[in-house]
Design goal:
It comes from Anaeromyxobacter paludicola. This protein is about 30% helix and about 20% strand. The model is unreliable at about 35-40 (pLDDT under 50). It is globular. It contains 5 helices and 6 strands, in the order E-H-E-E-H-E-H-E-H-E-H. With about 170 residues, the chain is an alpha/beta fold. The protein has helices spanning about 15-25, 70-80, 105-115, 135-145, 160-170; strands spanning about 1-10, 40-45, 50-55, 85-90, 120-125, 150. The longest helix is centred in the middle third of the chain and has 12 residues, at about 70-80. The chain has a 6-stranded mixed sheet, sandwiched between helices. It has one domain: 3-Layer(aba) Sandwich (Rossmann fold). The N and C termini lie close together (about 5 Å). Strand 4, helix 3 and strand 5 (about 120-125) form a beta-alpha-beta unit. Bound molecules: guanosine-5'-diphosphate and magnesium ion. Magnesium ion binds next to helix 1.
Length: about 170
């Protein structure tokens, strides 16, 4: 299988760290500050039977409100040129343990849905808390995109990164 994947998500959700993990080299810039990723073609992951080229989608990284319509259209054009959209979201819960999908996150998911491409939702930073707290998070995101694979993973520990790649491969 082979194809093109656009990676989208709010700043700091862990896009660059995931790509560095998957691509095995420092091809994307990782920073605690947003907006340091500048390249559009980020790299190609090659494994037996699988080749995935990752694309950046800068116009969908910024928070809602700072966007102008033209930037969004540019980003949506990128989405129209790929096979699959990988949406990264964070694994966190609110202070009371409730899952709160923020407005900026649901905006990104909505834009990804507008592409009408297969979606995979990667729930990043799964190393940060107990596993049972991930279940309501997964359920919440699954509810927003019922047909998508929702895959919790950690780029730090590497857990489930293979499952994320397998979910992408199934769409190609
Ligand atoms: P981007 O803006 O989406 O490209 O996000 P980055 O990859 O630059 O990561 C933003 C911050 O999240 C950095 O401080 C990373 O160290 C941290 N981060 C990224 N992946 C993980 C992870 O798997 N686990 C944890 N705990 N932190 C992570
Ligand atoms: Mg980045």
């Amino acid at each position: 299988r082979a194809g093109f994947v656009a990676i989208v998500g709010r700043p700091n959700v862990g896009k660059s760290t995931l790509l560095n993990r998957v691509l095995g080299e420092k091809v994307a810039i990782v920073s605690p500050r947003p907006q340091t990723t500048r390249t559009r073609i980020l790299g190609v992951h090659t494994a037996p039977g699988l080749q995935v080229a990752f694309f950046d989608t800068p116009g969908l990284h910024r928070a809602k409100g700072t966007l102008n319509a033209r930037m969004v259209e540019t980003a949506l054009t990128t989405l129209s040129e790929v096979d699959t959209v990988l949406v990264l979201v964070e694994s966190g819960t609110g202070p009371n343990g409730r899952v709160e999908v923020g407005e900026a996150t649901s905006w990104v998911i909505d834009q990804a849905k507008r592409s009408r491409k297969p979606l995979v939702l990667g729930v990043s930073k799964a190393d940060r808390g107990p596993k049972e707290l991930l279940l309501p998070v997964i359920a919440a995101y699954q509810g927003l995109a019922p047909w998508a694979d929702v895959v919790p993973f950690s780029s730090f520990s590497g857990e489930n990164v293979d499952a994320l790649l397998e979910a992408l491969a199934r769409t190609l």
